[in-house]
Design brief:
The chain has about 130 residues and is mainly α. The chain has a single domain (about 20-125), classed as Orthogonal Bundle (Globin-like). The protein is about 60% helix and about 0% strand. The longest helix is centred in the first third of the chain and has 18 residues, at about 15-35. The relative contact order is 0.17.
Length: about 130
């Protein structure tokens, strides 16, 4: 997974583990505050943040931390218990866009990250019930 403009993995381009941790730390307060997303997450968000850091490390081309700890990611299956609508997928991506911008990543890199995350975010949609129950 190389990026033409950066000649490296997304993981390396965002600053490796430290850069990714900053993004995750900027992202989850936005998720928790979001009216569509916040109710889906536990009060203690720290374990979720750690798993997200591990997963995104692997997803963006870094070490396979998530698989080493938990086995195959099977992300769609892991998200099935939660009502994920198209609106929630877009809200999640918007929170990530804002976290990337807050971390002042170059615009092209921000776009590459969102493009890479958009497919999975929409793949996790498992209901079209827009009542957001």
């Amino acid at each position: 997974m190389t990026m033409n403009n950066y000649g490296t993995t997304i993981y390396e381009a965002i600053g490796g583990s430290e850069g990714l941790r900053k993004i995750v730390e900027a992202f989850y307060p936005k998720v928790k505050a979001h009216p569509l997303l916040g109710p889906l997450f536990p009060e203690d968000i720290d374990p979720v943040m750690e798993r997200q850091h591990m997963f995104l490390t692997q997803f963006f081309g870094g070490p396979s931390l998530y698989s080493d700890a938990f086995g195959h990611p099977m992300m769609r299956a892991r998200h099935l218990p939660f009502p994920i609508t198209p609106a929630r997928a877009e809200a999640w991506l918007d929170c990530m866009r804002r976290a990337l911008a807050e971390n002042e990543l170059p615009m092209g890199l921000q776009q590459a990250v969102i493009e890479r995350l958009s497919g999975p975010a929409h793949h996790f949609v498992n209901t079209t019930d827009e009542r957001e129950t």
